[in-house]
Design goal:
Helix content of chain A: 40-55%
Strand content of chain A: 5-15%
Oligomer: homodimer
CATH topology of the largest domain in chain A: Aspartate Aminotransferase, domain 2
Protein name (chains A, B): GntR family transcriptional regulator
CATH class of the largest domain in chain A: Alpha Beta
Strand order of the largest sheet of chain A: 4-12-11-10-9-5-6
Number of helices of chain A: 16
Distance between the termini of chain A: 47 Å
GO molecular function, one term (chains A, B): DNA binding
Pfam family, one (chains A, B): Aminotran_1_2
Number of strands of chain A: 17
Family (chains A, B): In the C-terminal section; belongs to the class-I pyridoxal-phosphate-dependent aminotransferase family.
Keywords (chains A, B): DNA-binding, Pyridoxal phosphate, Transcription, Transcription regulation
């Protein structure tokens, strides 16, 4: 064990034991350096490690503090039921979630909507408006099938932060991440093929597997470290898996960041069994720690990783601009892109390229990361306060989603029906499983600015959960 | 035969015989009414019939005239080679056509680009700009999976003109017509299935068949009346066809309008053999005659027709807004829409709804129809003037595409290479055939405002064709 991990664990133990209480200032870097006889940078590394685990919070110029209410709720359990490839179901429940039009008065705590009210988005809107006013060929005509070269260059530059050196020629702009993921699936698999997925997993990908006739093999997934590599290896032994699809960084719905070592190990397994990896990185830039975690793609040396992402979570989903870096599958993906949508709308691409090039993207990301970090703490606190004892909860390290697990008999679809009169909607857990598991789980969105209205909504959801649990007993 | 058809044929015969020469004014409605003892409205109907056939041109307040240069070039021949289902090829040639970025200095005579410089588009740009400036949930968030209800209502209203009464609930907004067509194919067919198509046929659909693993059965298609019903019936007898895909109104690339009787007969055949019809109507509103022709969908009484269209040809392709009225396949299409792109971008949908609702769409269509009619005549004239004797040419009744057929040994891919130094690109005929037929054909776009520059380009293409033909002999 390295020095800094050792030190972090000692500090963590003291926090867990209550030697430092929520809100307390933790010892200064200098003091710990003297106390333990280690360098300043080792202490700093230890604090960053604790911060990643949500055990310490930095405050500028004041040092590190114990986050409020450190007594943790338990994590969701790992699903260990027998794995076999299944046909994907749950479409009706997904459809219910996505059929509510924008502007409806239902509070959609279930959808993957970022906060789009940030003032840091204003330059993007200005670009959209200004470019929309021009009557130039660029905005109204067919663009290049690959997408706007200027935007692709900016994406290529952004990818450097995740450890990827991908020339813009190897990037294809898509209509949101959906199109990227669907193209990735069709480029690597045939109908009837088996795709291994993390579990719980993004419903969009699983519905794509359903639509194109592939089977999903749901693998046990740790709520802190992601897909079980042991289970994956066994599955690769046992089944003719064609691709692994996962969201390793700021996972949806669990919020974990797969450790770098696991990412590398997963790639090695994929190479050994010669399967493709479809890496969804759509929340990757919303990791609460900086610099952002590396992608599996950043280790890819034989082009088997198809990296899929978009601006839907970092900026606004209504733009419908995503991208894919498809490695060796570039030609196939181009063909699928052509038949899927012909090309991606020009105007949002040009506005995005301008927004990023002018340096507006990074400040926006910083703001959202810090807002979502605070909101996670608040939302976690509200769940602790308003949900029944025994509620298990994820510990997101990025993004804006909480995953809750209730008593095994609980039914979150029933919860949604009970919430109808309150005009609140949550995402039922079952849509995150091909086979409809996780009925006792639900996903909550904490992207919106936390206010009394939101707190009241969480209180209502918690109280309704309690009522339903009571009525069962 | 009805009175007006009889009268139209008599007039037509006189024109063909040279009694009226190109540019001559034709007899007034009143004069013909007196001469033939028929009502004024019968004469008017006869003139509209002649106009539909390209034999008479109305000039406001001056009456009808013989179009310039009435001596016709021969029509393209009907392909009568043996039909069997084939895997689609030609992707490389399609990719070449669609890889040129907008703003490049290549004159793209091959692409399906409308004229986007019309001042009648200005209100749309104003809406785009104004809506883009607002920072409202409506533009930036996820919309409803079906598309914006306001736009769907406008589309429902527009569809009335084609004889369709389709409530907005049965319309799904898509990312261009590409997404509509791909969804229609996947909703009705499985990999390995056979789809009957008109021939030549839109390359986008055929590449979709390739991408999803279906086979194309190319049917003989008349350059004036469309798909051969006899050949279709034989094919339905012989092969387990799952769907018929065609562009019956203002066909791409041939420009014909399938007569209403044929449309009804085709639907009857589809019902008898229980196959779906995928009707591409993307050029339908650009028919030169008014009111616009009916769609096959307008006769559909059991929901087997999936009507696909978009604003890409009538307004601007860069918007990427299309729609599908999928009949009985609605639920399947919704699922495919979800996995394909999640939803369609909000901003262009809202701007389009505003544009149509404010009454700007009809005047724009009228302007484009009359512009494209004039351009067809001019372009036809230039081809007659600058292309080698023996060139066969289509007689488009809508849209903005000409289809040319040259000596059977001619190679239009070679032509494109020879045109490279001139920075001109045409669409090689082979991409309009699954099996790569029509190498001796090419498609020319006449959407752009005709000017000396365009005429010079057509002259260069014609001269290059002549050179290549000469070098072969």
């Amino acid at each position: 064990m390295t020095l800094y991990v050792d030190l972090a664990e000692q500090l963590g133990a003291r926090i867990e034991q209550g030697l430092y209480r929520p809100g307390d200032r933790l010892p200064s870097v200098r003091a710990l350096s003297l106390e333990h006889g280690v360098s300043l940078s080792t202490v700093q590394q230890a604090y960053r490690h604790l911060e990643d685990q949500g055990m310490a919070t930095p405050r500028p110029k004041s040092g590190y503090f114990v986050p409020p209410n450190r007594q943790k709720l338990a994590l969701p359990k790992i699903n260990r039921s027998v794995q076999r490839p299944v046909d994907v179901s749950q479409w009706d429940n997904v459809l219910e979630l996505i059929s509510i039009p924008p502007g409806s008065d239902v509070l959609q705590l279930g959808r993957g909507m970022p906060d789009i009210s940030s003032p840091t988005l204003k330059p993007l809107l200005r670009s959209l408006s200004r470019l929309g006013r021009r009557q130039s060929v660029a905005e109204l005509s067919y663009g290049c099938i690959h997408g706007d070269p200027g935007l692709r260059e900016q994406v290529s530059r952004l990818l450097l932060d995740s450890g990827c050196q991908i020339p813009y020629q190897d990037i294809v702009i898509t209509t949101g991440c959906h199109e990227a993921l669907s193209a990735a699936i069709c480029a690597t698999c045939q109908p009837g093929d088996i795709v291994a997925v993390d579990s719980p997993s993004f419903h969009g990908v699983m519905q794509a597997l359903k639509g194109f006739g592939m089977k999903a093999l749901e693998l046990p997934t740790d709520p802190l470290t992601g897909i079980s590599l042991e289970a994956l290896e066994l599955a690769l032994e046992q089944w003719p898996i064609k691709a692994i699809q996962l969201t390793p960084t700021c996972n949806n719905p669990l919020g974990y960041i797969m450790p770098e070592a696991n990412k590398r190990a997963l790639l090695t397994l994929a190479q050994r069994y010669d399967v493709a990896i479809i890496e969804d990185d759509v929340y990757g830039e919303l990791a609460y720690s900086y610099p952002r975690p590396r992608t599996i793609k950043s280790y890819d040396d034989d082009g088997r990783v198809l990296l899929c992402s978009s601006f839907s979570k970092t900026l606004a989903p209504g733009l419908r601009v995503g991208w894919i870096a498809p490695g060796r599958y570039l030609q196939k993906v181009l063909h699928l892109k052509y038949i899927g949508t012909g090309m991606t709308a020009q105007l949002p691409q040009l506005a995005l390229a301008e927004f990023i090039e002018s340096g507006h993207y990074e400040p926006h990301l910083r703001r959202m990361r810090s807002q979502y970090t605070r909101s996670r703490d608040l939302m976690t606190d509200w769940v602790r306060r308003y949900f029944p004892v025994g509620t298990r909860i994820s510990q997101p390290h990025g993004g804006f989603m909480l995953w809750l697990e209730l008593d095994s008999a609980f039914d979150s679809q029933r919860l949604n029906r009970a919430l109808l009169p309150h005009k609140i909607q949550i995402a039922p857990g079952s849509i995150f499983s091909a086979a409809g598991k996780y009925r006792n789980c639900l996903r909550l969105n904490y992207a919106a600015k936390p206010d009394a209205h939101l707190e009241e909504a969480v209180r209502i959801v918690g109280a309704t959960v309690a009522q339903l649990l009571d009525s069962d007993h």
